[in-house]
Amino acid sequence: MSIAVALDGPAGAGKSTIARRAAAALDFIYVDTGALYRAIGLAATRGGIDTDSADEIKTLLSSVTVDLAFNDEGEQVVLLSGEDVSGLIRTPEASMMASKVSAIPVVRAFLLDLQRNMAKSRNVIMDGRDIGTVVLPDAQVKIFLTASPEVRAGRRYKELCEKGMDVKYEDILQDVITRDYNDSHRETAPLRPADDSILVDTSELDFEQSVEKIISVIKEKI
């Protein structure tokens, strides 16, 4: 029987990097569901799609495919209609667009089966906004990972600066606050901890400590 770990939390909580490291340590498959929504957001941006138009969104979804694959180094690759868009979906603009499209029911339905199928036959750590509440409600382990908005914005600012991007901390902090509000107040699958999830706050933890904490929680539950 496969083991599913649902890792939810707000934007910038470090879910992807922490989950990736924890999955490698436990020999699990890491599934970054946020990347799927970012890919749809990128497709919408490229196509000039009005995200308030259900018809335009449906037309877009009928014309694209989204998938996750792994390269020779074992790193996750995001494919949009066969194109590797892994690097293109990590900008602040892509993040905000992902927040918009993830609130659209037809988009969530489009990606739901893909996400669930990934967990049927493999041990996975899947991160996102509603994994424990909607996507994998029967996951053996549910974790809600968070940190203060200021800490999350600071981490994101450092990450983007190291990539050579010209960004301002104040802008990123506002993006974090705005996305927190949008994600937690949307009608479809709002961001919230599952009733049986374990809360892990990494505001006072560094990266290695955060990974160790997540691994310890998983081992205790399984």
Give me the count of strands: 8
Which outline best applies? Answer: globular
| CATH architecture term | 3-Layer(aba) Sandwich
N-to-C order of helices and strands:
EHEHHEEEHHEHEHHEH
| Largest sheet strand order | 2-6-1-7-8
Beta-sheet strand percentage?
A: 15-25%
Structural class: alpha/beta
Name of the CATH superfamily: P-loop containing nucleotide triphosphate hydrolases
- Level-1 CATH class name: Alpha Beta
Oligomeric composition of the shown chains: single chain
**What kind of sheet is the major sheet?**
5 strands, parallel
Predict the CATH topology: Rossmann fold
How many H/I helices? 9
Task: Tell me the span between the first and last alpha carbons.
Answer: 12 Å
Considering DSSP H and I runs of 4 or more, what fraction of the residues is helical? Answer: 40-55%
Low-pLDDT stretches: none
Mean residue pLDDT: 90
